[in-house]
Amino acid sequence: MSAPFSDKRIVLGVTGSIAAYKACELASRLVESGAKVTAVLTKSAQQFVGPVTFEAITGRRAICDLFERGQEAEIEHITVARNADLFLIAPASANVLAKAAHGLADDWLSTALLATRAPILFAPAMNMQMYAHSATQANVAVLRERGCHFVGPESGRLACGDFGPGRLIETGSILEAAAALISTDRSLAGKQVLITSGPTREPIDPVRYVGNRSSGKMGRALAQEALRRGASVTVVSGPASAPLPAGATVVKVETAEQMLEAVRETFAACDVFIAAAAVADYRPEQVYIEKHKRDVRGMDVHLVPNPDIAAEMGLRKTPGQVLVGFAAETEHLLEQARQKLEKKGLDLIVANSVAPADTAIGAEDAQAALLDAQGHVEDIGRVSKETLARRLFDRIAQALPKTSDLPVRP
Q1: CA distance 198 to 219
Q2: What is the per-residue DSSP string for 174-229?
Q3: Is residue 403 scored above 70 in pLDDT?
Q4: SS3 label, residue 93
Q5: Hey, is 97 helix, strand or coil?
Q6: With 60 as the cut, is the pLDDT of residue 205 above it?
Q7: How far is CA 161 from each of CA 95, 133, 167, rounded to the nearest angstrom?
Q8: How does pLDDT run across 115-147, given as a tens digit for each residue?
Q9: How does pLDDT run across 264-287, given as a tens digit for each residue?
Q10: CA-to-CA distance for 128 and 81, rounded, in angstroms?
Q11: CB under 8 Å to 386, separation ≥6 — which residues?
């Protein structure tokens, strides 16, 4: 996470929520990533966590009052607001959302929100009834319309004992959303990116299925990189273990046929399609309605081929679209990848070696090469999946036609 935040000036607004203590970890992670963090605590926030904590974490004075005696010009609200690269309000209470929506400026944070031209990211946290209230939802809608951004909240057990939406989203998701906003790489701004991710599960009976070890980590890295470059991202995901970025539109599926149907519905509008899912090649011909009982004679399962999603999209491809596939192989890597590239009508394919245990499906790293339709091969080597995603999108950005070269889509 170091590159997006290196030397970036981030104002971290902390408001009156029981989740205020989580902002300490957020500040720490930002500082570790190279950011220059100025913490701003509202009076209500100070009831939960003190300024000394944030000053120890950030190495910078925390702002607590609009009219602090002897305050330095460095932290004067107009100056800080003007110089900030990002305003991150986490947790964001119902009160601060109301103030921001109605232009109230009765403390340092609400005043600076009016003065800044930096991106503003709210991470709401409050009681589920407060979040669902029509006034709060109207304020969120107004702020979105004005260009503010939101991440979360997520559903879960709240401090009051209720269970529902209102819980501060995890720190990792906040950092991902912040990284996407603060990025200066807008090479995919205005583009629609469609990604398939994770495994599929092909049922045998209500409790058994045919599947694979895919974690969805590659799909997650791809989605995050596309968001960082300014794209609108839709991920059609099987039951993966890796959570997807909060900024992506996620369509959850189980089987290959469900994944194909979801891709069909959105493919025509996309500029980039990346088939990163580990789709099961076969599915049971017969699916038992009831659990198939254990039998000492064994169990016969006849498998039939699943649809080839990438190949079908290759046939549907229109001028201007870029199609990318993945070839996960244990032998004859480049040869197998090249055959798939041509057979499926792809523009690029990632030849992904899954033979070594430390780069197998579900691992943190990948051993990969990139092949294009012109016959070029780029050896990526062993890299993290985040690095592979960056390298792949560099090539995708080059492959996308200029706007002036695009036909008008119906």
Answers
A1: 7
A2: HHHHHHHHH----TTTT-EEEEEESB--EESSSS-EE-----SHHHHHHHHHHHHT
A3: no
A4: coil
A5: helix
A6: yes
A7: 21, 18, 11
A8: 899 999 999 999 889 999 999 999 999 999 898
A9: 999 999 999 999 999 999 999 999
A10: 31
A11: 221, 224, 225
**DSSP letter string over 306-339?**
PP-HHHHHHHH--TT-EEEEEEEESSSHHHHHHH
Q: Rounded to whole angstroms, how far apart are CA atoms 117 and 294?
A: 65
Cβ contact 349:327 at 8 Å = yes
What Cα–Cα distance (Å) separates residue 406 from each residue in 175, 193, 269? Answer: 35, 16, 13
Q: Which domains does the chain have, with CATH numbers?
A: 2-182 (3.40.50.1950), 192-400 (3.40.50.10300)
What integer is the mean pLDDT of 102-108?
Answer: 92
Tokens of 84: 């900030």
Burial 380-407 (b: 16+ CB within 10 A, else e): beebebbbbbbbbbbbbeeebeeeeeee
Give yes or no: 160 in active site. yes
Cα 255 from Cα 401, distance rounded (Å): 33
Indicate which residue of 64, 148, 160, 270 is catalytic.
160
Residue type, 69: R
As a whole number of angstroms, the distance between CA 192 and CA 56 comes to 42
Copy the structure tokens of residue 99: 């103030």
Q: Peptide bond preceding 153: is omega within 30 degrees of 0, i.e. cis? A: yes
* Cα distances (angstroms) measured from residue 353 to each of 112, 327, 332: 51, 8, 9
Q: What confidence score (pLDDT) does residue 382 get?
A: 86
